[in-house]
Amino acid sequence: MKIAIGGDHAAVELKAAIINKLESAGHELHNFGTDSTDSVDYPDFGHPVAKEVLNGDADLGIVICGSGNGINMTVNKYAGIRSALAWNEELASLARQHNNANILALPARFVSLEDGLAITDAFLNATFEGGRHERRVAKIAP
Question: What are phi and psi of 8, to 5 degrees?
């Protein structure tokens, strides 16, 4: 699977752990940074992830900032992006199963590395259930 990933200075440690784990599992990661703890602006790292998912160069995306909110809001500005902020495995799974989420947003300052990795796994291993959910997902875009 091709996965685009990006995050701000709060995301560096979690993002590195996710990249290491997913590359070890055979996934192709497109890292849009940042890889430094110097203060940066999260939108600069969310926009390229959203574009990569929209243009089909990535199957899914992962975005990370301190609370997860700012970068989630950024990528959700793109028509066709359905990004879900998840701080536990169940939310991540349901985002894919019920909402056909194509980007996972993680709150780096509110999840441990272990939990962040588990949430990522739950997101990637879930699939859209379709059925009654298709009708609802189709109503998301205006």
Answer: -90, -165
